[in-house]
Amino acid sequence: MIGTMFLTMLSLGCTMEIAKIKGHIVKPKGVGIAIVSQYGIMPLTAFCLAKVFQLPEMAAVVVLICGCSPGGLLSNVMSLALRGDMNLSIVMTSCSTVLAFGMMPLLLFLYCQGFEGLQEAVPYKDIALSLLSILIPCGIGILLNHYRPQYSNIITKVGLIISTICFVVVTTLTVLDEGEKVLTVVSPSMMTIAFLMPMIGYTLGYLFSFLFRLSQPECRTVSMETGCQNGPLCMALVKVAFPPQFGPLFLYPLIYVFSQLCDATLLVLLFRSHQCWQQHKNKKGEEFITPKLLKNIYREQGHLSIVLTCNLALWRH
Fold first, then answer.
1. Do residues 103 and 233 make contact, with C-beta atoms less than 8 angstroms apart?
2. How much is the pTM?
C-alpha cells in the first residue's frame, strides 16, 4: 500500500509546474476559494452526516478522514471532462496535497471533539508522520518536473500504470481475504453517506465559487476539487496509522471513491447533454436575423458585416 502511494504521489508531483503554481499564488482568488471549499465544506459535511446517521466511533473517524483528505487525480480527470480550468485544477490538487500535512490532523482534532472518546483514540502523530512520508515523493516529483522535465512525462505514465496495477492487486487480495467482513462492518448508513458526500461537495463547491463570481470553467473545477478526495491516501492512512482493530474499515475509502466516480460521471453526462442541446439551439437560431443579433454584429464588426450576414441568410433561404 505504501509503495503504491509512493508511486502515485511521485506521478502526481511530476504533473505540477512551479511556474503555474506561482501564477496562481500571485492571483490567489481561485485557489483561495478552492482551498476554503476543500477544507471547509467537506469536513463539515462529513461531520454533519456522521452525526445525523449516528455512526459509531470508528466508523465516524473513517468518514471524517475521507472528508478531510486533499484532492486526488480523479478531480483532474473530471475537471478535464467538464472542460474546466486545468491549470487551476492541477494547482489546487498540489496545494491541497501540501496543506494536508497540517490541515488533516488539525481538522480531525477539531471535529473529533464532537464525538465522545475520539480525542484520545485518533493517532494524530502517526497520521502526521504517515502524511509526511507519503507527501515527500510528491515534492520529489515537483523538483523532477522543474529540473528534468524531459523525464516527467515518462515517470507520470509509467508510475500511474504501475501504481494502478498495484492498487488493483492489493485491493483484490484484501477483498478476497476480508470481503465477508466488509459487509458486516460497512453499514447501510455508511454506504448512504458514501454516495451523499461527493454530490453535496460538488453542489456546494459550485455554488460557493459562483457566489464569488469565478468563471464557469473555474466554478466547474472548484466543484470537482471539492467533491473528489484522494481515496488511496485515505486507505493508506487508515491502514498504516490506525490499530488493527479497525479491520476492513480501511476499504471504506474505496467505496467512497467509487461513489465519487458515479456522481461525477452523472454530472459530466448532464453537462455534455446540456452543451449539445445549447449548440443545437444556437445552430437553429443562426437561420433567423433578429434586431438583437444585428445590433451585436454592428457593435463588433460594423455595417459591412450586417450586409454580408443578411445576404448569407437570404441565400440560405
1. no
2. 0.73
